[in-house]
User: Which sequence fits this backbone?
C-alpha cells in the first residue's frame, strides 16, 4: 500500500491545516445538529471519507452541502453561535454559498503575494454549498446566459466592453427567469436537485442529485470523528467522479495552497 504521509504527515503544514479545518467542521456540525439542519460532507471531502477515512492526503479544502431553503437559517445560527475564533464570510452569498473562516490562520493561493494576508476571509475555511430543486438542463442553460452575465459584471470574464454592457442589461431578466422557475417549476423537478444555480462553472457543480440519494443522511467517519454524509454515498461519488476508488497517478495530485500558516 502506498505511503501517503509524504503529503500530509504529522507535523507538516498541510496536516496542521487539515486538522484546523476539522475543528471548523466540528463547530458547523454542532450547530446543524442543535437546530436539526441536514448537511452532508460532499465532493472531495466525501471522497476522502470513503476512500481514506479522512482527507484525501493532498487535499487542502473541506466542503459540506445543505439545502438552499436552510441557507439563511444556518448562516444566522452560525453567526450567533460560533466560537469567537471563527466567522461567517459573506462575500460569496450572491453565488449561493458561504464560508466559515478561521481567524487564527493565513493562506496564500496561486497568484497571490503576502499582501493577501490582509484580505478579509483569507484564513482556512470550510465551504458550505447548497442544492435546490432543479434539473441539470436548466442549470446548464442558465449558466450560459445568466452565469456569464454575472461573471462579466464581477470582472471574472473580460471579453470586451460591449459584452459587459449587454450583461448589465440581460442580468435583471435572467434573474427574474430564475425566480419564476423557482416559484412555478419545483413540482416538475421530481425530486432532482442541483448545486447553486447558476453561477458555477466547476464540473462537479453540474452533478445532479436525487432526494433519495441525500435523505435520510447517514454518519461517516472522517479524521476520527463522525459527521453527516448522504444516504447513498456510492451514487453521489459515481455521479461526480465515476471510478472514485481508484487513486489518481502522482502527476494528477494537486495541492492548491501555496502557503498556510496556522497560528496557535
Assistant:
Amino acid at each position: 500500500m502506498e505511503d501517503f504521509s509524504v503529503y500530509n504527515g504529522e507535523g507538516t503544514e498541510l496536516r496542521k491545516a487539515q486538522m484546523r479545518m476539522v475543528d471548523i467542521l466540528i463547530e458547523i456540525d454542532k450547530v446543524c445538529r442543535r437546530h436539526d439542519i441536514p448537511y452532508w460532507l460532499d465532493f472531495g471531502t466525501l471522497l476522502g471519507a470513503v476512500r481514506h477515512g479522512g482527507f484525501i492526503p493532498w487535499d487542502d479544502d473541506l466542503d459540506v452541502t445543505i439545502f438552499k431553503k436552510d441557507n439563511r437559517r444556518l448562516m444566522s445560527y452560525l453567526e450567533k453561535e460560533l466560537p469567537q475564533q471563527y466567522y461567517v464570510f459573506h462575500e460569496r452569498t450572491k453565488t449561493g454559498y458561504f464560508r466559515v473562516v478561521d481567524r487564527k490562520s493565513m493562506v496564500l493561493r496561486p497568484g497571490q503575494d503576502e499582501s493577501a494576508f490582509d484580505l478579509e476571509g483569507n484564513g482556512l475555511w470550510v465551504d458550505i454549498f447548497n442544492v435546490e430543486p432543479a434539473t441539470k438542463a436548466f442549470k446548464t442553460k442558465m449558466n450560459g446566459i445568466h452565469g456569464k452575465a454575472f461573471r462579466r459584471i464581477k470582472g471574472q470574464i473580460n471579453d470586451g466592453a460591449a459584452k459587459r454592457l449587454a450583461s448589465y442589461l440581460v442580468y435583471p431578466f435572467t434573474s427574474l427567469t430564475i425566480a419564476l422557475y423557482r416559484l412555478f417549476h419545483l413540482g416538475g423537478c421530481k425530486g432532482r436537485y442541483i448545486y447553486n444555480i447558476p453561477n458555477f462553472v466547476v464540473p462537479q457543480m453540474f452533478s445532479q442529485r436525487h432526494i433519495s440519494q441525500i435523505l435520510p443522511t447517514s454518519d461517516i467517519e472522517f479524521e476520527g470523528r463522525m459527521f453527516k454524509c448522504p444516504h447513498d454515498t456510492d451514487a453521489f461519488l459515481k455521479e461526480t467522479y465515476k471510478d472514485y476508488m481508484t487513486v489518481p497517478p502522482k502527476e494528477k495530485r494537486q495541492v492548491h495552497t501555496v502557503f498556510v500558516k496556522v497560528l496557535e
